[in-house]
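This section describes the prediction task in plain terms. A model, or a person checking by hand, is given the sequence of a single protein chain and must write out its three-dimensional structure as a string of tokens. No templates, partner chains or ligands are provided. The sample shown here is typical of the held-out split.
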Amino acid sequence: MKVLVVDDDAGLRKSLGLILSEAGHEVVSASDGEEGLEVARVERPDIILCDVRMPRVDGLEFLRLYRAESGEAVVVVMTAYGSREVAVEAVKGGASDYIPKPFGVDEVMLRLAITEEREELRKEVGRLRNEVRADARFGEIVARSPLMVRALEVAQRVAPHDSPVLISGNTGTGKELVARLIHRSSDRADEPFVAVNCGAIPGNLLESEFFGHVKGAFTGADRDKEGLFEAARGGTLFLDEVGELPVELQVKLLRALQEREVRRLGSTTSTDVDVRVISATNRDLEKAVREEEFRPDLYYRLAVVPIHLPPLRERAEEIPELVRHLLERHRKRLGLDVDGVTPEAMEILLDYTWPGNIRELENVLERALVLTTGTQLRPEDLPEQLRVRTPDSLDMELHGNDLSVKRRTADLEKHLIEKALERTGGNRTQAAEFLDLSPRALRYKIKDYGLS
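The expected answer:
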């Protein structure tokens, strides 16, 4: 481990350095808290041994500043005999342990060993917790396409941090689901998740909804009311369709995010708010910034970590699993005995472009569930707009003047195999499922048609 020793006693720094080096640790040192902060930023130690009484910046102030900079090292404070109250204060401020002075070599090594073991255990618990969360995070989100998997990986990596996230994507792609996933995977999971559709609130009520008001602030304000920022305190505020905010409110939202405080309408005092903000939009906000419809400073504040969700037509390989997931959910809710989709109906679902994305797919499946008279959804259970063939699809099947059934069938089969391989990113097992072929049969056909 790398150990940083912060103490104004040069003799103690030297002796501790020798002891720790002989024990196999890498040692760096600083003569006071101010220098200690500079060394910690550069060296990134695993453990810091810090004296409490030092000139310029003492140990308690060093600890406060270090934690404010998101320093993650384990801090063990060294206190003079009889300074137990100071040691307790240090532990409350983020120190992991304390060692009373004077101390012996064995005591130092024992405390370091205990601290190291405790830190390893903490990391292991964190790793296992993340694994459990990673398994659960796909509970409501189907992700098999490379684009969607990458989006969820970014969501997973950013979740433990408080950095603002901007989720973009067409309507119905699951932006709120991803926002809730980030919240559940964060340290704020036990605190409120407050969602608001910025385009659904009348313009004259936006400021009051976001920041609250006091009694008498305007006509009809007969009592104090907390705003969305206060309601989400300690948790996550989800701003859906944030691109619909009027410019005048964008200014006030930017101030609230920068200052981390809000002022209710009609009040003269501000209230501190600890809120993690996740935004979502189906608009091209960069274009809106260029056209001066959205403030660039607010955009850069919200889009620290951007996540883009692809439309369903770009991740068609997820449709079979989405269909199973959605059918199971609505079948139980509606109390219906429908256990799947016929291959013919699945082919129709795969060929449709889904302009309304997952929301449209869910709507279609629920409608079909209610109307079907069988135990599986059939083509006739699906809406007409899905079943009607387009001129493009007919042209693809009957292109040119060649009416040979044998040759045209082979052409169509080759085209379908190419399409399935494209949708699955070359995954032959998934492609075989789409094509209703065995993996072995698909392998032979790929070879026959000279496909890679």
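For orientation: The domain at 2-127 is CATH 3.40.50.2300 (Rossmann fold).
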